[in-house]
Design a protein that fits this description.
This protein is mostly beta strands. The protein is built from 1 helix and 9 strands, in the order αβββββββββ.
């Protein structure tokens, strides 16, 4: 089950709009379908301000119940949320990694289809020309009305 972390209202409002479908491996069975991301095991990875007076929250989520690392590193899905210091405006960055395919939706619209990887994708680091990039990032700005916070 998900964590019981108390996030600031603006972080929680954004996380509540994110859902995920997770597949076993690249083409396997569905592990979770259209699951609210807050239902996944998670932990805050970092939060706070910067010299630019910008606040950010970084949250890690685990994509499987049977995890390799004990305790979980919660790094299969990472969500970074920045307060852009304009009323109600935030930047969201979502990163995926690992072998499991993940389809991320925001407000019901697909925004990222991370394909995962398998052993055939792993190349010898000395043969740089053979290495293909596996993309798993989406970045977007979102406006959250004050009444939704």
């Amino acid at each position: 089950m998900g964590s019981e972390t108390n996030y600031p209202p603006w972080v929680k409002a954004i996380l509540e709009k994110i859902s995920i479908t997770i597949y076993r491996g690249r083409t396997g069975s569905v592990l979770r379908k259209d699951e609210p991301i807050l239902n996944l095991n998670s932990k805050p990875l970092s939060h706070g301000g910067s010299e630019y007076n910008q606040t950010a929250y970084i949250i890690g989520f685990e994509d499987e119940e049977k995890i390799w690392n004990k305790p979980s590193d919660c790094s299969d899905i990472v969500v970074k949320i920045y307060d852009l210091k304009e009323p109600g405006k935030y930047r969201v960055e979502i990163f995926c990694s690992g072998v499991n395919r993940k389809v991320i939706k925001f407000e019901g619209k697909e925004i990222l289809n991370y394909q995962g990887y398998d052993e055939e994708d792993i190349k010898d680091i000395r043969n740089w020309k053979e290495i293909e990039s596996i993309r798993g990032t989406v970045i977007f700005d979102v406006q959250i009305p004050k009444q939704d916070l």
